[in-house]
Amino acid sequence: MTASATQGVLSPRLFFEIVQQSPLAISITDEEANILYVNPAFETLTAYDKDAILGKNESILSHKQTPIAVYRELWSTIRAKKPWRGTLVNRRSSGEAYLAELHISPVLNGQGEIHYFLGIHRDVTQLHALEKKVRHQKTLIESVLDSAPVVVALIDAERRVILDNQAYKKLLGDLHGSEPAMLFLQALEQDGVDLKAMCRGGRDFADTEVRLDIAGRAEPRWFSVSGTWVDELDSTAGSYFTP
Q1: Given this model, what pLDDT does residue 233 score?
Q2: How confident is the model at residue 4 (pLDDT cuts 50, 70, 90)?
Q3: Which residue in 112, 135, 146, 153 could disulfide with 164, CB within 3.0 to 4.6 Å?
């Protein structure tokens, strides 16, 4: 340990080594985005060798799939001496496209003028693909539910409807805005079904007859109601290490 480190003062060399060994891709450019420094993680991510990219403009990473409006917003923000955070479609030296989550911060000199730009970015291509897959699966599930000839609703612990199908929406219209799920639950409880006890025990119920009296209709409507309990996933930070 050096004397300066012992006294609580970090040397410039130590700062340099920290940046060099950072797992995040880091670059420093001048005010025109000409590259002055890149760390090894930047070389690995972009597949550009340091000697080949130093002096080049950072636009060498730009991909035509990124809208011009995004770049305009980026430059407008950092020229106003504010940090910018966003996602760009970049390209490696091979031409392969990847998604870069980018943080750019202006570095000011003693007179408060922009002297450099510090860029930190990481590849979020796989994360984006996973998010799209989840959205696709949600859309697929909704399509299947909408084609079902039965009324379907997913209700949370606070009795809020968080997912339904077209048959449910049609019934909602027939009931003039009265939530069908609430009417079904109230009717079940009036018939002696202990929903709270069933929920705590994780028990399902099936083919329970429920009558709904609809305003404007002389005859009631009868439904055969079934319910399946689904454990809600805990997405809080404290559940990260919990199976």
Answers
A1: 75
A2: very low
A3: 153
CA distance 94 to 28: 22
Per DSSP, the chain holds a count of helices (H) and strands (E) of 9, 9
Please tell me the distance from the alpha carbon of residue 124 to that of residue 130, in angstroms, as a whole number: 10
Backbone torsion region of residue 73, taken as left when φ is above 0, otherwise alpha when ψ lies between -120 and 50, otherwise beta: alpha
CA–CA dist 101, 88 (Å, integer): 7
Angle formed at CA 10 by CA 8 and CA 12, multiple of 5 degrees: 165
What stretch of H or E contains 100?
A: strand 97-108
What is the model's pTM? 0.69
**pLDDT tens digit sequence for 40-50:** 999 999 999 99
Q: In whole angstroms, what is the distance from residue 222 CA to residue 158 CA?
A: 25
How many whole angstroms from its chain centre is CA 53?
A: 32
Higher pLDDT, 230 or 59: 59
Measured CA to CA, the distance from residue 75 to residue 31 in angstroms comes to: 11
Question: Which uninterrupted H or E stretch holds 82?
Answer: none
Q: Label residue 77 exposed, middle or buried (CB < 10 Å: 0-12, 13-18, 19+).
A: middle
Q: Could you identify the residue written with the tokens 């940090």?
A: 83
| HSE (side-chain half, CA atoms, 13 Å) at 112 | 1
Residue 242 amino acid letter: T
User: Residue 155: helix, strand or coil by DSSP?
Assistant: strand
